[in-house]
Amino acid sequence: MSLKRRALEGIVVAGSLMMMCVVVEAGQQGNETADTASAGEVKSVEIAAVVLLNEDHTAGLGKYMAQLEEEIPAVEVEQTKTQIVASAQEDLSGVEAIAADHTMEETVLAEDVAAEDSVNEEQQQWQNCLMADVDEFLYVRASADANAEIVGKLYKGAVAEIVDESEEWTHITSGNVEGYVSNEYCVSGTEAMEYANANFDVTAQIETDGLRVRSEADTDSAILTSVSEGATLAVDTSVETTDEWVAVQYKGNIGYVSAEYVTTGLALGEAVSIEEERAAAKAKEEAEAAKAAEAQAAATATTVQNSAVAASYDELTLLAALIQCEAGNECYEGQVAVGAVVMNRVRSGAYPGSIYGVIYDPYQFSPAGSGQVAAVAANGPKASCIQAAQEALNGMDNTGGKLSFRRASSGRAGVVIGNHVFF
Fold first, then answer.
1. Are 148 and 142 in contact, with CB atoms under 8 Å apart?
2. Rg of the Cα trace of the chain?
3. What distance lies between CA 151 and its chain's CA centroid?
4. What is the rounded CA–CA span in Å between residue 404 and residue 340?
5. FRET label pair with 400: which of 3, 21, 232, 361, CA 20 to 30 Å apart?
6. What is the mean pLDDT of residues 287-310?
7. Rounded-to-integer distance, Cα 241 and Cα 289, Å
8. Which string of b and e fits 1-26 if b means at least 16 CB within 10 Å?
9. What is the pTM (predicted TM-score) of this model?
10. CA-CA distances (angstroms) from residue 333 to 8, 191, 329, 384, 420?
11. DSSP secondary-structure letter at 415?
12. Backbone angles phi, psi at 379, to 5 degrees
């Protein structure tokens, strides 16, 4: 029987009793009213109350009220009926409120149960897992012995599967590594789960090419960038989102990606075998060696002796003035190199065919555009710069044919001479 049905039956019984009291009171006050209730009428009330319990409550109550209107004075019946109906409405309101509270409690309980099930499921997934609680890595050994051969390393953040456990050692597998780790430096099961959640970030791995990162969790918001399949982005778990979006970190800002195209999880790894680590170290050394060789080759320029170029005194002075403005405080080789770049441009055919034209070519040499070159030429360049200009005119090129230069601190690849890199 439903809660509302029980409540309504209780209300009807209470109303019936109230009606009985009214009828009895009406009988006792026979001198003050023109029409009183007899004992038979009281009896009929009792019978009607019983009948009400067995009939449809709403219909029964209506039927009974109609009967009372015929047997009891109109004023008293109307007042009594009003009281019963009002009382029923109040009680029903209370029942509805209780039912609403009950429904809310059931909803909260269901949510709590779902959350607890989720936690229990995560705990179950971690029951057979182990992690090393270390600053860098933990050795994995061939047997449960501190002196056994090292077969791999369980780095901080790597997860292993437990094969068997003893008091001091645990047999694990992780990646391509199988061996034993000391229990003294490990956490497992729920402790491993809590350790992972507390120490490692959640990442989103991109499952489709060209996934858009948006400024808001909305398909109409601005696109910050697009990322390739296989890339990973750090998830910002402090940002609340719907199930359709994942908040990620992008260049120090918050971005949003569609949850449909990413897989989220803790940024955890696997153990690395000694062979794998040696191979990785060798590959790194080879890459660094190749890079160094490339840099050395770029830094070693062959000095070329080109044919001499006839120039007037004014052109010599102008070239020396540019050299002084660009490399006046550098080594002599650096001064010659600046002069060689100007002469290489004169010979190239891609630039103006004269010293003056190359030096004053728009947006090429800033000292020329600012008037510094003209000022130095008017006052007379210093001797080392005049000599460097003359060697460049005579065809010396210690840059290997380079046409441009920048400050060496720019990081530009090329031949470094003095404080400039030539390319």
1. yes
2. 47
3. 35
4. 10
5. 361
6. 76
7. 47
8. eeeeeebbeebbeebbeebbebbeeb
9. 0.47
10. 107, 66, 11, 10, 11
11. E
12. -85, -15
CA torsion, points 342, 346, 351, 356, in degrees to nearest 10? 70
User: 178 forms bridges with which residues in the sheet?
Assistant: 173
- Over residues 255-283, the pLDDT tens digits come to 999 999 999 999 899 999 999 999 999 99
Taking Cα atoms as reference points, which of 211, 201, 199 lies closest to residue 245?
A: 211
Domains of the chain: 3-98 (no CATH), 127-200+268-297 (2.30.30.40), 205-263 (2.30.30.40), 304-422 (1.10.10.2520)
Mean pLDDT of the residues in the chain: 81
Q: 57: which 2 tokens?
A: 């409550």
